[in-house]
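Changelog note: in this version the structure field was regenerated for every chain. One regenerated record is shown below for reference.
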Amino acid sequence: MDYLIFSFLLVTLSLSGFYQQQSADNLNSTEMTKTTIQQAIETVHDINAINDYLYRHPDVI
């Protein structure tokens, strides 16, 4: 009977650790996605600024 309780406890703790790790991995991928999206937005803003400058100053080209 003691082995059954010990086995149940071990399986329960193992599963809870697995789910916590999986949750942390999802959080990290979400943060990486947000960072990538923010970098893409900043790049588009920079390209638009260059385009606007070249439109206003066509003699630069």
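Spot check on this record: The radius of gyration is 26 Å. The chain has a mean pLDDT of 78.
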